[in-house]
Write a structure and sequence with these properties.
This protein is α+β, with helices and mostly antiparallel strands and about 750 residues long. It contains 17 helices and 42 strands. Strand 8 (about 190-195) and strand 9 form a beta hairpin. Helix 16 packs across helix 17. The longest helix is centred in the middle third of the chain and has 18 residues, at about 260-280. The chain is globular and about 75 Å long.
Amino acid sequence: MRPTDTISYFNDTCTAMLRVCKMLISATALLFLFPPASAAGKTASVNPTARFMSTMKGFTGNAMPYAISQKNDRDRQAIYLPIIIRVENEDTPLPAFATELHRRGTIVLATVPEERLGELASHTGIHRLEAYASATPEMTSAREFCRLPEAISPTPQFPTALDGTGVVVGFTDIGFDPNHLNFLDNDGNTRVKKLVNYTFDSPVPQILETQEEISSWSTDNADETHATHVAGILSGSYTADNMQGVAPGAEIVATTSPLYDALLLAGCEEIIKYADAQGKPAVINISISSDIGPHDGTTLFNRYMESITEDATVCISAANDGVRTGFTTGTTSAGQTSIRTYFREYPHLSPLRLNGTVDIWSDNDKQFRITLLTQDMQTGELQRIPVAIDPANGTNEWILCSKKIQETIGNIPFSEMPEFMEGYIHVAGELNPENNRYNVALRCSYVDTTTTDPYKAHVLFGVEVEAEEPGTVIEFYSTPGIFFTKYKDTTAATPVSARTVNDFCAGDGPICVGSLDSQNRFTSISGSAIDFPRLNIGGVSYFSSYGTLSNGKILPDICAPGAQLVSSLSRQYCDMNPDYPLSLATISHENNGSKHYWGPMQGTSMSSPFAAGVAALWLQANPHLDGKQTRDIALATASPPQTDTSNPQWGHGVLDAAAGLAMARNLAGTDNVGSIHQEKLSVKVNGKIAYISLLSSDMMSLRILSPDGRLLTEHHPGTPDFAADCNGYPGGIYIVCVTDSHNRNHSVKVALY
């Protein structure tokens, strides 16, 4: 992955788009693959992305960009699609043609033959199918910003330096080189203890567990280096040039896949399985994001992830869309019953082509009407194209497509794409049973075939949503290849960059990590300067995603160094792209005839493994913490930012490795106490009154947070003592955060009953 300001894996050339369209034309789409209830009894609810995957049978590559690089044509063996399933009860079996990977309660991770996905929906006991197939992957000076040296250094009280020993660290990613010098021990053996690789070719993963198997494996994808870089930050152990990762003593479990949400979760299970067998705590990093979804914590992914954090600490990147207007919202009224927006390719501002998804959600269960719009790029004149979907009556899909594609779509309702356009806009809707909100997704893949000049483009596509009830809130999200715009329609909704945060972080449990700038200048191995002028050392990264969700949850939870970080690069990727290491690598070393490179990258993909490595240090000190407790510690001990303090991209502040380590040690064996004392902060609870005292300083601010990071109350005492009235708080664990007169943070976790 190149260290660009915005990471996107969508094709950005007309040639690629035409190739994708030809793939669709040549495929035999099985339309209405999910039979209506009248034909096959009660069927499972299916989210729009999963419906697209099935309806466009043989077209998985356009639903998931990585499939294109792995599967360039359709003349090959069967495809197995990953899917998340909600079943009737914990014992409900899957049909024989579906392969169960893992199960937690009534949520199952499985792979299904592509042509039988619709059949699965009508199987007895299957209630829900979900797939979000748009996941994208998004150390020297970095250490100073989070007080990492202070945390890992031995002290008279704790004479053993921390390096993650006794902890299992794992990740689920793409582009991993397990035999890079950064992952070898002193004897030249790989430190990777287990490697799990998922592909579309098999219903089950390839699992490597011996030194010989892993040493003979090259990489899952030579076109990527993302996982190699991420793993180096997390747990690289090569000490020359001070390039070791945050937790170099930890055991490594690597899982790789095409990055469907079900496979990310399955990878987490494999990491936990290994850690359980070793009797060690686990930390998992997911530097992958999904910008679409309801952003309310209700998806099957969110619910499954919450369960995972009972068994492991999980860090997830916040996403890299802090400057992309990938979110817009509006509220209907009696005088304005509809909300409109338009979409263009990001970052080129071009309406000539588009490849991605627009995801639309209401805040209630009332079906809204959808109309596609075309805005003339020269005059601003609007044309409307009615969308014929009516899920209440069994019509869940509709497509706008060019003539050649119409020849393959059978009986699905459609309208004809303007003659100068090639491709389609696939529309699917449902009342989502997990949150009782109406949802419509537009999967777009089209190109203007008459010109390559964006100033001569014909039309700009958009969508109008008309709601039945005044006061309906409509939210529009988009994948990284798309941004929203008004263009010449001044009455359209105003797009913003807030709320482009990762939907994988919307649920309870994982730690959502944003990025701060730690370094902006390097020298390549060829001697040329590499500058990143948009980075402000010590400031929040301009690209770091953020947002306050509708339930009040603030994301990211914390920020950690993510721009730029130097880490290992896949040897296979460098071999495939020889100009890349010559121009951008900063360090190289040879070992056994192979050259190994390190180079800078930026993104929340880099800040998340930094935070995960710090969490591994905390778990080394207190291995009994579960994932939610580790997240509480990160929130409670976050330091206030030193610059641009009002910027919402900071979330709750900056990761503080040393303060978190102190709390981790203090919390050992104190899960159910009513009072907790730190060296400078004391909290005593009497009923629902918390008596808070700060030694040797006044409290300039005092915040009480819920365990999921929501601010419940804030005071500015200006005194060393304060009595906080907590009546009205339900019993549970809360976080008390105090900032003293020297701008230092002090935090404790306290139980209220």
